[in-house]
Write a structure and sequence with these properties.
The protein is an alpha+beta fold and 432 residues long. The chain contains 20 helices and eleven strands. The chain binds adenosine-5'-triphosphate and magnesium ion.
């Protein structure tokens, strides 16, 4: 055990510091030992901010969590089945407490069997050496770093290394996690780990992962700061084709990701526009080169069904159709712009922008959000009733036509002009 006090008590937001100060005496009183573990320890050593406190307890985590919550007067959410509890502090900061546990894997890629254990066992079930360190919070050795697998050395060397040779076979999602940390920190995945990952791919172990687990890991990667680098690493390790064999990480995908990133930043900068979700935008960017059949298969592989699956297909198609129209020479009629965009999610709109000439696309989108979509007739269904019209589908048709005519400035705004338009349309319709 290295004598190595970390500055964990001095740093970070006040609510987290308070929680860290309150924990040790409470644990002492309950006769438990508590440790700070995982990503937060790694980030402390790297000097990076991390506002998720993960605490491992040798003892009943739930009991300690309740005591901590009442001492801090905050809410606690318990998950008795997993022996974990989480506290939400002022400012939305979270503290997760878990009873130390040991895991065994009944078969490759199967969910583990879990039992209470020691800190050493809890660190031994983790993914990488850099994530398998702990800081003692109370009792003898408080403040010291526990680093049984050489995590600190690997941090210095810039290495992502699994704890043992069965790691990726036990849990193939770790291959995606390896890419996440390697790209985030600019580290190497060790040659031995790369070999293990390729073997797991070769043995078809990724096919045993549920769509939901695969999708969750992919989304975590796509939320990273450099999503394309993640995708490229996935491709090099043979992991991209576990999602769909036609997926590529070539220069056109690189270009599209760069454009999608700019679209995302532009949307977030412009106050009037909604903020697209990065993971779902990049997911569509990754999949949008696929044929409709391939897109369907990839969506299914990611666990999408029913409406979620048709939603993905609709979004990708809609974005492509909109991008095509936005890219054409000449000007787009506002009503056509409206029809192209009204049913697209913010992510699909951002993808459409990424697929279009940038300046022109931004101008159209700005037009849509700041002007076109707010244009609505002042004439209503009641007015149509007043004209003696039988309520029915015709109402919708007339009001839509009117709205579009207003958008395209073919009709002046105001009841008089609008009613004149309606009468004229009616005359035409009855003649036809
Ligand atoms: P981030 O900064 O992205 O949150 P993190 O290291 O905190 O990184 P989490 O996914 O939040 O990662 O997981 C917390 C900890 O739980 C990890 O540091 C790791 O020790 C452990 N862990 C998470 N997923 C796995 C897994 N699939 N196999 C083994 N250990 C895992
Ligand atoms: Mg975390």
């Amino acid at each position: 055990m290295a004598k190595n006090p970390l500055p964990f008590r001095q740093k970070g937001p006040l609510p987290l510091r308070e929680a860290l100060r309150a924990l040790p005496p409470l644990a002492e009183r309950l006769g438990m030992r508590v440790y700070l573990v995982g990503g937060v320890v790694r980030d402390l050593l790297l000097g990076l901010p991390n506002f998720d406190l993960d605490i491992v307890v040798e003892g009943d985590a739930m009991r300690l969590a309740r005591a901590l919550a009442s001492s801090l007067s905050c809410g606690v959410l318990a998950h008795p089945r997993f022996g974990t509890a989480s506290l939400t502090l002022e400012g939305g900061y979270k503290v997760d407490l878990a009873t130390a546990r040991t895991e065994s894997y009944p078969g490759p890629a199967a969910l583990p069997r879990v039992a209470p254990g020691t800190l050493a066992q809890d660190l031994g079930r983790r993914d990488f050496t850099i994530n398998a360190m702990a800081v003692v919070l109370n009792g003898p050795g408080a403040g010291e770093l526990i680093d049984p697998f050489g995590g600190r050395r690997d941090l210095r060397a810039g290495r992502v290394r699994a704890l043992h040779s069965r790691s990726y076979r036990d849990d193939p999602t770790r291959a995606f996690r390896a890419v996440r940390f390697a790209v985030r920190f600019g580290y190497k995945i060790t040659p031995a780990d790369r070999e293990m990952i390729r073997k797991a791919v070769g043995r078809g172990l990724f096919g045993r992962l549920s769509g939901a687990r695969l999708a969750a890991e992919l989304d975590l990667l796509l939320k990273e700061e450099k999503p394309f680098l993640c995708v490229r690493r996935l491709a090099r390790l043979g992991l991209l084709r576990t999602i769909h064999p036609s997926l590529r990480a070539g220069s056109s995908v690189e270009e599209l990701f760069a454009r999608a990133g700019r679209a995302l930043r532009w949307f977030s900068r412009e106050g009037r526009l909604p903020t697209p979700d990065a993971a779902s935008l990049y997911r569509m960017a990754l999949l949008c080169g696929l044929s409709p059949e391939e897109l369907e298969a990839a969506g299914e592989r990611l666990g999408l069904m029913g409406r979620a699956l048709s939603g993905l297909k609709g979004s990708v198609q809609g974005a492509r159709r909109a991008a095509e129209a936005l890219s054409r020479r000449g000007t787009l009629r506002p009503s056509r712009l409206y029809r192209l965009l009204e049913n697209l999610s913010p992510e699909a709109q951002a993808l459409a922008l990424a697929l279009s000439p940038e300046r022109k696309g931004r101008r159209y989108l700005m037009d849509y959000w700041s002007k076109v979509r707010d244009i609505a007739p002042s004439v209503t269904g009641d007015d149509l009733l007043g004209l003696g019209l039988e309520p029915g589908p015709l109402y919708r048709k007339l009001l839509t036509e009117l709205r579009e005519a207003l958008m395209d400035e073919e009709v002046k705004r105001g009841r008089r002009e609008e009613l004149r338009f309606i009468r004229m349309r009616l005359k035409k319709l009855t003649k036809a």
